[in-house]
Amino acid sequence: MKLCGLWLEDKENSVICTACIRRCKIGVGRTGACMTRKNEGGKLYSLTYGHISSIALDPIEKKPLFHFFPGSHVYSVGGWGCNFGCGMCQNYEIAHIVPGLRDEDALSPEELVSNALERNADGMAFTYNEPAIWPEFVRDVFKLAKKHDLYTVLVTNGSSTKESIDYYGPYCDAYRVDIKGMTDITLGRIGIRGIDPSEILEGTIWARDRWGMHVECVTNIIPTVNDSESELRAIATWIRDNLGPRVPWHITRFYPALRFRHLMPTDLPSLEMAERIGRQIGLSYIYIGNVHTQRGENTYCPRCQALIIEREGYKIKQNLSAMGRCTRCGELLGITASDTRESYRS
User: Fold this and answer.
1) In this structure, which topology does domain 54-296 adopt according to CATH?
2) What is the Cα–Cα distance from 83 to 334, expressed in whole angstroms?
3) According to a count of CB atoms within 10 Å of the terminal CB, is the N or C end of the chain lower?
4) pTM above the 0.85 mark?
5) How far apart are the C-alpha atoms of 137 and 6, rounded to whole Å?
6) What DSSP string describes 205-229?
7) Is the pLDDT of residue 91 over 60?
8) C-alpha neighbours within 13 Å on the C-beta side of residue 245
């Protein structure tokens, strides 16, 4: 166990966790909704600090991040626990089953960053389970990663509080966020209760505007759950009005899992409808994921429509951007790459 950095004292030795927007009030001997932050004697401890469930060296496109150092490889790390209850969770075994963990089995930030460097990673990402629930470990790893010239990525459901974003913000480069729905009714249908979606949206703006994080948004389109035209239009409109029309929107195919095994995978016409809505709203970059389409994962210049980045799965076949611009018309594309600033890892 490790003493947490994000919590407040409350009455009768209770504590209030300020890591995520649930702000759990936790009595002595109890854990929060994530099952990983425990009140011991009136102080809040992380049960999972340094305990790794999953590690992989991934293409950055797998996160998915298409405008952030395309073609690079990121050391992807997952822990245990989650603060949401999504019915389609494909990582249930690590997100909602926290095993008995021994302190001697934990990895230090130094060991983790060293492993990433040994595998020639370009950056580090916290992903697989929800990183908002262990911001202390995220911060310690990211702070060290930056000293070793690695970029840093958070793949998140957007549930970090502003206090938590401020805590790791100086060391986080990219914020890949799920926008699952715009109302608590939609979140409830997904299985997420007790969460105000406006706090997810506000936190995303805060990460971008306060800390300059690169932001890309993902909506997993679930049949009968969040696939209505009005819901998709609301998401696209919010992205345009609050993050800007050049922020990528990834619309991904749902596959049956967990409590949603009875649903069919998202059909292509529904994904194409979402893409049309995004175009009508004015978004420049819309990507269709988890299904093969002819154009769905390619990047085109929003000005001259030239093919800039051609993708096949997670592989880049060609990249015709230079200094973040279209080489045909010179349009600034909003793509962060190693040639777009003198030192992106400082």
Assistant:
1) TIM Barrel (3.20.20)
2) 32
3) C
4) yes
5) 12
6) HHHHHHH--EEEEEEEE-TTTT--H
7) yes
8) 12
